[in-house]
Specification:
Chain lengths: 318, 503
């Protein structure tokens, strides 16, 4: 009677903790292979710092995905806002004002997505696929397709500076994640988003304004993508019209990875953060191992599938 | 029924234990050939576990299964299928744009041509054979989405017989069917019996089970209480066996000599996409039943009053002033609530906790500013939960883990967190066992006693007659009568519903 025991005890454990165990194993594996380069405080800080922009963008995507929608436009939106704020800064606009304008533009682009999805009735996948293409076009048009350099030094503090030894992007990440956690877990707004994602019809009959909530989630996602784009521009000290594009796939991957952790099949901010760090550790570790970047892509894809498979297998058995 | 023959299926001492729960403690039943065998019990009695064991989804911890005196092992659903066991589930959905033949064979291997492609001709032939054997006439050349409701139900029924099995297990097969469709299903079941099959019929509807079955096995708390032969059936006795307690009446007692004066809801010539010119007054403390066959517009009437379905013309006066709802949120704010027909798809967020499901409607009232006051929410949820006699070990558990009756109580609770002035209930006891049913009736009565106006839609006429003061009868979207419940019986109400007696 060994197998029933496995069925009833090991699998739920794996289901809940599988993704985090996978994450820890990943860290152990890299530490074992490269103890002097991977497993150092400096590198750890490096990973977190590199992950912070993805974490900020993914936090917004999490909000959208909780209601069952998808936002594919975050990557090109981040690029667009990066270009936009670079242009504003180069026209000698005040840093704070230009970044606030960038965030507002991000929110407005999110509003557009939200209107198309919630009020236009277009599936979020298609609507944001279309706006992704358009935002990307606008970014290329504004930048004339070239990288913009010559940003003011004070602006570079956002992505490269530090406060009491902690890099500024990490501080922003912590603030955004705490903020997202408060909204999603502690506020009525967030619980209503979960209700919508859990059962659209029941949520509607419970008196929730579904359109307004979906619209709002896209505004949040747009603004956080814009924020990510601004920090990315500062970090690179330049704005490239496609710099933010990989954020789209990576944020989706992070949220999906997060959906396999702790709770069953729904997006949540803690899981997303774990997903972001898995992506970060993978990228960093494979780099240190000197894996060819094409091969890295193949491995990253494979490892994501493995992680998701592991936990969905546990779910099925349960 | 031939008793001395070897039973088609014999269960000996089947046991199953889940962590902390004895789901089945030694089940012994024999099912004969040429028999319709009713299986009844409250939710949690162990019926579904037993079915899952036979279907090969769950493994029994102990016990033996014999078919025709031969011991068999069921390790997987494939084993179960090979042995000739077929399972017909509660709610089967059709794929709208496929025709009836394809829907019938969905999930079974399609016949192939010698090129390896699907042989549509043979598929249609086989479908025709099944339909003919069941005496059902359905056009095969159009998508089922364009079939009438009755014909669609027939497709669902035919689908169950796509495989030829020895024993058919039917779990609540009539929940989605209208009265005359039920009759057609029963004919099919009897036909199966006549050709030497065994049918195990599981339902909460005791009238149905008593009507159909040759024998009835009653289960309670993971045990078989008894198996009764046809001449031993009696509804009160069955209920007593199922619940283990004495119940004198199915309904809580009516309050004597109540007078209703104040009108809470006044509906004037209300017309919507599926309702025409409906007018009535609902008084405070009154239970107004709404009767009608499926498609008569009773659900749509409630949905219009709740702000879900569009109102084309007419007006609604709520507490004396005009109120035309545009969304459920407007109605809920006013104090109008609707317990929707489909508990699982419309009433609950199944993967979320009991607490969250109860709190979701009046979340604002449980919050301080934008933040949820968790302590207050818990307190309020437990308070309303105990009021509706909700049995949940932990309010943090997903609502999906509760039994049907308790799930329904969660739906009631969530709309009752702030007492509604008008409480509309659409089939509040669908798929709910007898014990929980009585409790739900009591909750409705208490709410009425405290002054809420109740609108009750139910297909179960005994429920309408037992609870309501007056009954509004609908037919094809129109209101055709308002009658006093005292003056009616089930037969006369049925006649009215079919539009056979004008008034």
């Amino acid at each position: 009677m060994k197998s029933p025991k496995f069925n009833t005890e090991a699998l739920p454990f794996l289901k809940k903790w599988g993704t985090i165990i996978f994450f820890i194993l990943l860290i152990f594996a890299f530490s074992f292979m490269r103890p002097t380069t991977f497993a150092t405080w400096g590198n750890l800080k490096n990973i977190v710092e590199q992950s912070s922009i993805l974490a900020i963008v993914s936090a917004g995507v999490t909000v959208v995905m909780i209601t069952g929608d998808m936002d594919l436009s975050v990557g090109s939106l981040a690029s667009l806002v990066g270009i936009l704020s670079a242009l504003l800064l180069k026209s000698n606009m005040n840093i704070l004002v230009s970044e606030i304008i960038g965030l507002i533009i991000g929110g407005l682009c999110g509003l557009l997505n939200g209107i198309l999805v919630a009020y236009g009735g277009i599936s979020s996948f298609i609507a944001t696929l279309a706006t992704m293409t358009s935002f990307g076009g606008v970014a290329l048009l504004l930048s004339k397709g070239v990288t913009l350099f010559g940003l003011p030094d004070a602006f570079l503090w956002l992505g490269q500076g530090s406060i009491v030894g902690i890099p500024v992007p990490i501080i922003f990440m912590i603030i955004i994640v705490i903020f997202a956690w408060l909204i999603l877990e502690q506020m009525t707004f967030g619980r209503r988003l979960y209700a919508i994602g859990g059962n659209h019809e029941a949520a509607f009959l419970s008196g929730i304004n579904i359109k307004l909530h979906r619209l709002s989630s896209f505004i949040i996602s747009g603004a956080s993508a814009a924020f990510g784009g601004i920090i990315l521009t500062s970090r690179l000290a330049s704005a490239h019209p496609q710099a933010g594009n990989p954020l789209m796939l990576n944020s989706a991957a992070a949220v999906f990875l997060g959906m396999t952790a702790f709770r069953e099949g729904e997006a949540h901010i803690g899981g997303t953060l774990l997903g972001v760090f898995i992506m970060g550790v993978l990228g960093n570790g494979l780099n240190i191992l000197g894996v060819n970047s094409y091969v890295q892509s193949i491995l990253t894809g494979g490892i994501i599938i493995l992680a998701v498979l592991l936990s969905s297998f546990a779910k099925r058995k349960n | 029924m031939i008793i001395n023959e070897a039973p088609a299926l014999k269960l000996v001492e089947i046991k199953k234990e889940y962590p902390g729960v004895k789901a089945l403690s030694g089940i012994n039943i024999d099912f004969q050939t040429n028999e319709i065998h009713g299986l009844i019990g409250e939710n949690g009695a162990g019926k579904s576990t037993l079915i899952k064991i036979l279907a090969g989804i769950v493994k029994a911890d102990y016990g033996e299964i014999f078919m025709n005196n031969k011991k068999v092992n069921i390790r997987s659903s494939k084993d179960s299928q090979k042995l000739g066991l077929s399972f017909i589930h509660q709610e089967l959905n059709l794929i709208e744009y496929m025709n009836a033949a394809e829907n019938i064979f969905l999930g079974h291997p399609y016949p192939k041509t010698r090129w390896g492609t699907i042989s549509w001709k043979e598929l249609n032939e086989r479908a025709k054979e099944i339909l003919k054997a069941l005496d059902i006439d359905i056009p095969l050349n159009i998508p089922v989405g364009r079939l009438s409701t009755v014909n669609r139900s027939m497709v669902i029924i035919a689908r169950a017989f796509a495989v030829s099995a020895l024993i058919y297990f039917m779990d609540e097969p009539t929940t989605a069917l209208a009265a005359h469709e039920k009759g057609m299903l029963f004919e099919v079941i009897r036909k199966l019996k006549s050709i030497g099959k065994t049918i195990v019929y599981i339902s909460h509807d005791l009238d149905e089970v008593m009507l159909l079955s040759d024998r009835i096995t009653v289960m309670r708390d993971g045990k078989v209480v008894t198996t009764l032969a046809k001449n031993e059936y009696e509804k009160p006795k069955l209920i007593q066996l199922m619940t283990g307690r004495n119940m004198n009446s199915l309904f809580p007692p009516r309050l004597e000599s109540r007078k209703f004066e104040e009108i809470i809801l006044s509906v004037r010539s209300l017309t919507g996409p599926k309702i025409k010119n409906v007018s009535f007054d609902l008084k405070k403390g009154e239970i107004l039943g709404i009767a009608g066959i499926v498609g008569s517009g009773r659900t749509e009437l409630l949905r219009s009053l709740f702000g879900v379905d569009k109102i084309i013309s007419g007006e609604i006066l709520f507490d004396g002033s005009l109120f035309m709802p545009h969304s459920p949120s407007e109605s809920i704010k006013k104090g109008i609530a609707l317990v929707p027909e489909e508990r699982r798809s419309q009433g609950l967020i199944l993967n979320r906790s009991v607490l969250e499901n109860i709190a979701i409607v009046h979340l604002k009232a449980l919050s301080r500013g934008p933040f949820i006051d968790i302590k207050n929410a818990k307190r309020e949820a437990v308070k309303i939960g105990s009021l509706v006699r909700l049995k949940a070990t932990d309010y943090r558990n997903a609502v999906a883990t509760l039994s049907g009756g308790n799930q329904q109580k969660v739906v009631l609770a969530k709309y009752m967190l702030q007492k509604p002035q008008v409480f509309m209930l659409d089939e509040p006891t669908k798929g709910v066992d007898v014990g929980a049913r009585y409790e739900i009736y009591s909750i409705i009565r208490e709410l009425a006693k405290e002054g809420s106006g109740i609108l009750l839609v139910a297909s179960d006429f005994s429920e309408l007659l037992g609870l309501s003061e007056r009954i509004l009868v609908m037919h094809e979207g129109k209101m055709i009568a308002v009658v006093n419940a005292k003056d009616m019986n089930e037969a006369s109400l049925l006649k009215l519903c079919y539009g056979l007696e004008g008034s």
